TrEMBL record:
Keywords: 4Fe-4S, DNA damage, DNA repair, Glycosidase, Hydrolase, Iron, Iron-sulfur, Metal-binding. The gene is mutY. It catalyses: Hydrolyzes free adenine bases from 7,8-dihydro-8-oxoguanine:adenine mismatched double-stranded DNA, leaving an apurinic site. This is Adenine DNA glycosylase. Its EC number is 3.2.2.31. Belongs to the Nth/MutY family. It comes from the Bacteria. It is an enzyme of class 3 (hydrolase). InterPro entries: A/G_AdeGlyc_MutY, DNA_glycosylase, HhH-GPD_domain, HhH_base_excis_C, HhH_motif, MIG/MutY, MutY_C, NUDIX_hydrolase-like_dom_sf. SMART domains: ENDO3c.
Length: 347
């Protein structure tokens, strides 16, 4: 009781003015929570604003083309979240007449909605006593109670969820959940929190035992795999290029990319030049090959690091099966490709 009262008092004077805090609308809360998963507010806020402007209701989002949703999402990463967002929007609009379920259990059944998001919507929109546990909450609780259980273990997930559920303000679950997340984001920060002004510094076990930098505990993930990507940026005399849609369940599903050659290691010019001579897109053409980036671009994903080279292929002749270069910005592409397009300046 003292914990929640202290937290709510802190929140009342320190909370940030954010657009999704001005509403109880499930669509707005859901959208903000999906965007802010693994994304900081400063980065996520412009995306939220763009989404609510482009898709002001669940029906607008449901009726959109997936490619439009992915294009708007471009730069946030974790594109499965955008695909799930679209799938769930269509289900709610078409099967539930646009009405969100109002219980944690029913929200949990929706594609792309896990424990955290279901708890957030249930508490904020429907005043259900469901505690949220995200990275910020893990950090606050592990430090305050000096808990050594790894937060990315099944035991940790269960332990912290139970503790958060015990602490939540039963009379005002929405305020408590938003307060503890805000506290972790702005006060009990991952690095160098200012504990001197923390309202919990007298009772925080980590602070009083000098363990702030040790907590929370996290099991180290497996070492990321290295992959070597070579993109063929094909440019014809009639100002066309080629983008291919990625199929399957791997990274960047349904996004577009330049034709890709994946190799076992990073290749130098002569070796790569030999390998592309018989490429199915080029074997009938004469072309000039050059390497765009002298230094390999390392694009880090959660489980793999992509060592990337962009090869400029100037084809002598027309490219009738390509797309006009001036249309390239209309395609949804991974941020790695998007950054190249901006630098290369096709316009």
């Amino acid at each position: 009781m003292i914990f929640s009262k202290t937290l709510n008092n802190w929140y009342s004077t320190n909370k940030r003015d954010l657009p999704w805090r001005q509403t109880k609308d499930p669509y707005s809360i859901w959208l903000s929570e999906i965007i802010l998963q693994q994304t900081q507010v400063a980065q996520g806020l412009p995306y939220y604003s763009k989404f609510v402007e482009e898709f002001p209701s669940i029906f607008h989002l449901a009726n959109a083309e997936e490619s439009s949703v992915l294009k708007l999402w471009q730069g946030l990463g974790y594109y499965s979240r955008a695909r799930n967002l679209h799938t769930t929007a269509k289900y709610i609009a078409q099967e539930l007449n646009g009405e969100f379920p109002n219980t944690y259990k029913d929200l949990l059944k929706l594609k792309g909605i896990g424990d955290y998001t279901a708890s957030a919507i249930a508490s904020i929109c429907f005043n259900k006593v469901e505690a949220v546990v995200d990275g910020n909450v893990y950090r606050v609780l592990s430090r305050y109670f000096a808990i050594d259980t790894p937060i990315n273990s099944s035991k940790g997930a269960k332990e912290f969820k139970q503790l958060a559920q015990e602490l939540i303000d039963k009379n005002n679950p929405a305020e408590f959940n938003q307060a503890i997340m805000e506290f972790g984001a702005t006060q009990c920060k991952p690095q160098s929190p200012d504990c001197s002004v923390c309202p919990f510094n007298k009772s925080c076990m980590a602070f009083n035992t000098n363990r702030i930098n040790e907590l929370p505990v996290k099991i180290k993930s497996a070492k990321a795999k290295k992959k070597y990507f070579n993109f063929l940026v094909i440019i014809s005399n009639n100002e066309r290029t080629i983008l291919e849609k990625r199929e399957g369940k791997g990274i960047w599903q349904n996004l577009y990319q330049f034709p890709l050659i994946e190799t076992a290691k990073s290749l130098e010019f002569e070796d790569f030049n030999k390998s592309v001579q018989n490429h199915h897109l080029l074997k009938e053409s004469s072309f000039e090959l050059s390497l765009y980036n002298d230094d390999v671009i390392i694009h880090k994903l959660s489980h793999q690091h992509l060592y990337t080279k962009f090869w400029i292929v100037k084809v002598n002749g027309s490219l009738n099966n390509g797309i006009p270069i001036n249309k390239i910005h209309s395609y949804a592409v991974p941020i790695l490709i998007g950054n190249f397009i901006e630098r290369f300046n096709f316009d």
